[in-house]
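Lab meeting minutes (informal)
Scribe: AK
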Amino acid sequence: MRALPDGAAQADPVSEPTMVSGRRLVFVDKPERTQTQVLIGSLGTQPHDEDHHALSVANAIFGGTFTSRLMREVRSKRGWSYGASARLGVDRHRQAFTMWTFPAATDAAACLALELDLLSTFVAKGITTRELSFIKRYLARSYAFEIDTAAKRMHQALDVELLDLPADYYSGYIAHVEGVTLETANGAVSRRLGAKDLLITVVGTASEILEPVRAAIPELASHEVVPFDRD
């Protein structure tokens, strides 16, 4: 393979994203759906934020592991969705914070209401000392599986270059995690996340569950119904 030519990198034409205020619902109408897809999103983090790693650690507690709050409340306690997760995207610009579940149509409204309540509590009260202690040990010890092959290490090196990540984004990962305190974690959550400005997308059958879904979203600012096969 030929080496890449020398020269300056091209300018990035993408502007920083913004978030429209209020809770907005986009209902993707697909007939005869017995299962739904629920995606709740807002703005999240950027790799050069001073609190980027603190927010990532806190989010792992909220929805990043099999024992997270979301998994415990949605799957373990109620059995509403096989999976429940919260993710912080990483890119050259600020990326999304997203929550994802896939409950049965009959459970969609209740599941959505629970997720919004859990998010509100997370933003308002943050995490606990016990949760932080557990997740820091888990993330540090499991990081070996992120670098155990040459391919994984190469992907990390490419990410640093292509996504303009800090040089020690991966090489200093364990140190970044160990440096997170309860104060920095909860400060990052309260600064970066919110429960008021959200885009909520539900894929389901509108004639059956649109109204219960709308009713499950307090302070809903707007909604629209989009056919699943619209161009």
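Next up, CB showed the second protein from the same session:
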Amino acid sequence: MPNEDTGNIVRVNGIDLYYETQGTGGPLLLLHGGGGCHDDWAYAGREHFLREYSLITPDARGHGRSRNPSGTITHRQCALDTLALLDYLEVRKCKAIGMSMGGNILLHMATLQPDRIEAMVLVSATMYFPEQARAIMRQVSIEKQLPEEWETMRKRHKHGDEQIKAIWQWSRELADSYDDMNFTPPSLSRISALTLIVYGDRDFLYPVEMAIEMYRAIPRSSLWVVPNGGHGPVFLDAAAQFAQTALTFLRS
């Protein structure tokens, strides 16, 4: 993989995909959550990971600086985009961390091409969307977004308000999506990557029982339940402990 510290755009699967590479060492892929962008990793221990790895941090299609002319987003398609990016970078195998949507993308990558992911950390990922998550998704409304929410999204996403509206619309449409995230224990049993599953025991989207279900289905998996942790319990004050735990796991 090129040794660089820069942002780039590569054409994959009909979109312009933005990504950054930074650091030296073996490749570590970092995949952000839905509605986020690659910069979110600055608040989840990126500086710690940089000490040991060469980071690859893309913006998923339709997010950040990546475009999405079709307007359609699925986790599976994002997985295919990311695999194409690894091909472009000539990365045959890597370690990876995925946050929520990013973890869902990793589940697709690790089942589509099991030999590409050596080890992975899944933070607040899910096999499928439970009803409590679908109920929250149905409540997403563009019209009800507060000015501070618009301000936050405009800092993350660089292609105008229509891009932001499309992300919120996609978030709402997930409530009626049943085929994209629909992993069963037999399908997860194909995963060969050493896997750490990270869940908050107060996750408002996915109950902790789902983490246990994945833990039982994925071979060579470990489970870390974060006490009093919500959805994505690894940011800001929790970042240092998360990075230390993830790095220790990835070294193994």
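CB comment: DSSP finds nine helices and eight strands in the chain.
No objections, moving on.
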